């Protein structure tokens, strides 16, 4: 397909004149979801789902989330220079979308980040048949097969019963993982208040305006140590093993991430209770999705391209690594500087 | 297997001892025999299967996985058993089958011929989830590093009943997995198992540190003094049931000391002896490093036995020909030990001599003058003290030499574990030397103790404020903070760039008053301490 091209700024739709999740400020950007490595500030025109636009405004302020913000709800179509553009749910976080482009009888779908596992906080992934599928590959190794998140939540609650005096502090991303964890806890019948690190509060409030109920939430930062005893505290991954966590009563450090599948990763993070909960497609889901789209060609944007391309090759699908730089591996690159700064 | 796998997972990631004990107690309470017994055996290192090798696992996995994908995965995960456990596809296809029980796995591994193992193991993996697969694979390769020592498992077991860990030790070596009589006793359903003639371990009596104790209140004639030898505390056991050499933590180290076992075999007496295990150079103890060489070998080569012969300085006698002497006062036991020794004069054994003294200042002077290899300080034992397992306060004191000290400069800091995981609490320190590009620091060791909580907070703040580079969990810091490091001995070491290593280094003082440039030189250090 020759009308979609990887450029230094990001993936570029040539006839449409727009970039998808560009890494630098551009004239027109289509944004797949609100995570900071995909949604960057300073674009002139931004097209995204209403939820993603709201998330961007919350994170960067109204003025930096795009001079022109053009909401495009799932399933709505617009045409830009002959390219028909629509957004389809990606199941990654609230508002996350696949970017579907039709041009001269060909269809390309850019997945953004996605998962196939059910998630009470966002629309489920929709398979869109296409000629070219552009996929992420964060967990593209056959060792990554995410367990049922209900099992992981049960692990957390079991430990809480075993150690009822200890504060269970769970490291999680502020956008998506945090709200999903709360929703999973509620699904499993946990109805006590969930305590939040200051950096997570506003995003939870925004999710509630999206119509996603999260139950009673309380601010951990202002709470007494004794109040948090036996409670569940959610905090950004950078805060759980640092000075912020010292305020907690004998904390059990947990981290919710797909990387927790690998013991060395959990050990290196000093995690006592790893929870394998991921908002990305695992190995099986990546292969299944590539096959289900019926695409004859698959481009791989970021992650472990070589393994996925190799496996697609064994299935007769042509793969290509785009090697776009700038997209982060979830949980992997956050620096300690951040941890030092986040003291709120 | 599911419960055992979950336990292993929690133990592996849990830094706190109390938490580990709680997890173990919960497991023992909720798991029936014989599974819990086999779990205990696995943790105590009492299971070993020789037929299953890592190569077999790799071959099994390769049959079912694309080799390139396997190679990338193994490269990423870094552990063979874990890679196989994660990559194996099984349970999804057979969601209604349960993983095999722990006892089933252990018993089958004992009896299955090698040729039939691959099929058996593959069948287990097929019906297991990934953490059960990991537990099975670690079990059969014998590399079950569970993050809980044998002693910890026994402590948890003792706490789940009303016995002490020491009482368990005294029957332990007479029992076999799955330890059903042990669990029956601890839960109060059966009498204490009788080890009969088995060469069981007797928990040793340990001394408290004399630091901070006022010697002037002691009457010298109530006390006996001995050298504190710098080897490892050992227990030699000879009964009708066999011979054993144990460490003071009940580890059976006989395989590393066949020279001692042989002597015990030839001994015409049934005894339990307490002494210091040393490597001898003629009549004198060799440096601790020589002993370490012996301890590191599973079975020593003949040259090793010749060049680093083991010996034992005897401190005490606990049993003689079936008679339990532990309730006798020290003086009486000492007499029995001397008589026994004179009667048998066993080779490679010497009595740890009693040091005659009139008063404690005389002893103190002696303690400081004795800087010879192999002496760590003095032991003070009450003449009337019975042999009480554990570390009772009062009857025995260890009176170590003043530690040696050096002023070093902090070079790197690393986060600690558990309660200290938010603190930079492990410090690498170095000394100055002339390098190719001028004066440079070269690391000589790492310390993570010796400071108070307040000092730790200071050090943590200092590290954060003076970081110059980061390598994962390690921070390089400005060469600006002098730490006075206390240590027990210095030795040559090939492991460190500086060529020296310290025993028990700890932070004695933070020398904010001293400019880093005035910290000690490596050359001077070598001249003084080596």
UniProtKB/TrEMBL annotation, chain A:
Organism superkingdom: Bacteria
Keyword rRNA processing: no
Cross-referenced InterPro entries: MBL, RibonucZ/Hydroxyglut_hydro, Xnuc_lig_assoc
GO MF annotation list: ligase activity; RNA endonuclease activity
Keywords (A to Z) from UniProt: Ligase
Ligase in keyword set: yes
Protein name, per record: DNA ligase-associated DEXH box helicase
UniProtKB/TrEMBL annotation, chain B:
UniProt record, GO biological process: cell division; DNA recombination; DNA repair; DNA replication
Residues annotated as domain ATP-dependent DNA ligase family profile: 314-433
EC number(s) from the headed UniProt entry: 6.5.1.1
GO terms assigned for molecular function: ATP binding; DNA binding; DNA ligase (ATP) activity; metal ion binding
Protein name: DNA ligase (ATP)
InterPro entries: ATP-dep_DNA_ligase, ATP_dep_DNA_lig_pp_1105_fam, DNA_ligase_ATP-dep_C, DNA_ligase_ATP-dep_cent, DNA_ligase_ATP-dep_CS, DNA_ligase_N_sf, NA-bd_OB-fold
Catalytic activity: ATP + (deoxyribonucleotide)n-3'-hydroxyl + 5'-phospho-(deoxyribonucleotide)m = (deoxyribonucleotide)n+m + AMP + diphosphate
Domain of life: Bacteria
Alphabetical list of PROSITE patterns matching this protein: DNA_LIGASE_A1, DNA_LIGASE_A3
UniProt xrefs under SUPFAM superfamilies: DNA ligase/mRNA capping enzyme, catalytic domain (SSF56091), Nucleic acid-binding proteins (SSF50249)
Keywords from the named record: ATP-binding, Cell cycle, Cell division, DNA damage, DNA recombination, DNA repair, DNA replication, Ligase, Magnesium, Metal-binding, Nucleotide-binding
